Amino acid sequence: MPFRIDVEGCLTEPGRDDALTGEDLKAGLETLTPATRKLAEQRAAGSGPEFLQLPERTEDLARAGELAASLAETCDDILILGTGGSSLGAQALYALADSGYGNRLGGPNLHFLDNVDPHSFDDFLAAVDLPRLGVVAVSKSGATAETLCQTMLVLEALLTEVDESRLARQVAVITEPKDSPLKALAERYHLPCLDHDEGVGGRYSVLSVVGLLPALLAGLDAAALRRGAKEVLDRSLGGGAEERGSPQAGAVLSVEYARRAGLTQSVLMPYLDRLGYFGLWFRQLWAESLGKQGRGLTPIRAMGAVDQHSQLQLYLEGPRDKLFTLIRMSEAPEGASIPADLAEDPALDYLAGHSMGDLLDAMARATAETLIRHRRPTRVITLDDLDETVLGGLLMHFMLETVFAAELLQVNPFDQPAVEEGKQLARDYLKKGARESA
Amino acid sequence: MPFRIDVEGCLTEPGRDDALTGEDLKAGLETLTPATRKLAEQRAAGSGPEFLQLPERTEDLARAGELAASLAETCDDILILGTGGSSLGAQALYALADSGYGNRLGGPNLHFLDNVDPHSFDDFLAAVDLPRLGVVAVSKSGATAETLCQTMLVLEALLTEVDESRLARQVAVITEPKDSPLKALAERYHLPCLDHDEGVGGRYSVLSVVGLLPALLAGLDAAALRRGAKEVLDRSLGGGAEERGSPQAGAVLSVEYARRAGLTQSVLMPYLDRLGYFGLWFRQLWAESLGKQGRGLTPIRAMGAVDQHSQLQLYLEGPRDKLFTLIRMSEAPEGASIPADLAEDPALDYLAGHSMGDLLDAMARATAETLIRHRRPTRVITLDDLDETVLGGLLMHFMLETVFAAELLQVNPFDQPAVEEGKQLARDYLKKGARESA
């Protein structure tokens, strides 16, 4: 497996008021056996949740690869338009290639505008070279107001600088293969179009072309992402289902702690900047899948070590209402050591000769241990490396964990019934036209 | 006042089980009268929390202005090193100048490395032009491990490309005027040094040189930031203390909802990208100030409208455990309208002729109304504009709200006793040397 999960820091001795023992975990895992078996059967039969099929697909990658190559040829920068599940997965993947200072892999730089703030939007358009800008607009339904608004304004901006016939070489669309406003725009300008799988909701789409076209554009190994996901899927729905590090175990821990000890929040805290967007992807996945019928823990993305200087006081001495998942590397990258002559101050002897990675790792281990000492349930995921295979595995792990948590909470992990109401109201306000500035 | 706060969406009719009525709010405000009076007296006497004095200082700005001018002259990019309160305030301010695509004001581009991930750190150093790089290292104590580690590695990198004598023109330090490892480094290389106020903790330091040197470097109007803060301070400790939009009222709402209805989380959700870092600044302020003795609501930074596609399902139909604060603009900026010929699809009639800002505003209003319909306590802050004066006012509002919430929770808003334990443990691990990779 591409990573190890240690849940000992979540397990307590019997008799304590908030106890969740190894025996309790085992009992919880047994209740999930039928659900695991059912998913495994559905996967084998090609039925059930379609995201389970994605790791073994190949034909869609070929088409996405051609499109990526053609866009990358004409474009230095690629703008990904889309919001929520149409953007967060791709952002999680692209973080492997770019720390914020440009694409290290030599491909085009990707930019994600997933909001509709005209201020940032205009700043982006002013900064970019429009004739060398590629655009990928992503909307499952083809009717998302934000994405349509952005796409139309970008098309208009492009048309001020390039000929209409060129749009088909700069702009592509990912949407379901049915009539929609986005589909109509694509047809009008003859834009290349990839199909959004109809059976895969946005927040489960990262291993479809929604995540993998951007990954391919960036120069990442999309097949390796799927390979890592497949490895976790095989094991989680097979012999590894009852291991303490399984997705099922993660689901049991969250839901049982919520039930027994009143936990209301689940904190995911990677000690790697490259997993920052992965944390935001998880935050959507967990919140939208489980937050219904008055249930669901609030997912919180924290970043190690920096949030030790922001949230750790609350985590250690605030209410005992959080489950923690820390992610760390087992080996620091080879990095420059702090030069001994700069660290000659006796107060710095603990730093001399160490690298920044050593410091980060010491912080991660110290924080995990301190949380556990303060009786905050804490699990630790240890990565030996962070590449496409590992990230693919992490993505699949958390999608499965979410689906199993939904099983325990008795909610549907694939719908989001509450968000329609606000969308309709926003449309009504726009139709009425007048801005209420009071 | 530079903004309006509407709390009607937090107030309910008497008789409901989770009721907090206008009368309850009034009663809560009265309990804070002595605390308000005390702060006003302390402010007048120059005693008490020192952050109250910052809005009227001027001499420190003159010195910071000179340093900023000298750094900006030799540098195209400025790296701000520091973590937690040594960075988040400056990031909140810099967002006024830069949406992520460069400094719109024409000054140098600022970069904030507030973590110790060697991967991002090395990517930054590889991307930047070292002879034109300015550095400001910020640590109140001068002994923060992360900041020292970063500073030493940056100094080493600089010394590979520039002469040691030039460091004093490229690197500056903000720290307390006493012996410390950072101070020793500054002395060794004759680096210019600004004093960190000893009586102002990091998370209350945004209106000191810690926030204002970066603001000045970026080309922002630091005096206007202080002016906006002063306006809010005058009113909040004067005749406006008992208004429903006062910081005191915000504190009462949070604490009373936690007490009566079991709320555990406070969500700050600006519908402006430029307030994204402000939200992260608030998250530290609130968590570290209040999260102690088992008390404190968890602060959550959400972003409108994008988090409607990530968190809104949970917010509307998950547990009723959150207080919401939305921030919106009363007027959208003049922006391009969606061209009618692109939006000719009948399904898009609600968008045609509207700007992106209109859409964003409709989303903000619709979300506020939907939250209230779902009986989630929701207040709305409306800005007529977003400039230095308004941002300064918002910063002061939330610092005061935090201090008053601490008064109601009976905790000390100025300490963070729990974080020392983990720091010491991390030092021990580093001293032991061996990495535990098991």
Automatic annotation (TrEMBL), chains A, B:
EC number: 5.3.1.9
Keywords, sorted A to Z: Gluconeogenesis, Glycolysis, Isomerase
Taxonomy, superkingdom: Bacteria
InterPro entries membership: G6P_Isomerase (IPR001672), Phosphoglucose_isomerase_CS (IPR018189), SIS_dom_sf (IPR046348), SIS_PGI_1 (IPR035476), SIS_PGI_2 (IPR035482)
Pathway involvement of the protein, from the record: Carbohydrate degradation; glycolysis; D-glyceraldehyde 3-phosphate and glycerone phosphate from D-glucose: step 2/4
Reactions performed catalytically: alpha-D-glucose 6-phosphate = beta-D-fructose 6-phosphate
Pfam families according to UniProt: PGI
The keyword Isomerase is annotated on this UniProt entry: yes
Classification via CDD domains: SIS_PGI_1, SIS_PGI_2
GO molecular function, one term: isomerase activity
Entry similarity comment: Belongs to the GPI family.
Stated name of the protein: Glucose-6-phosphate isomerase
Organism whose genome encodes this protein: Fodinicurvata halophila
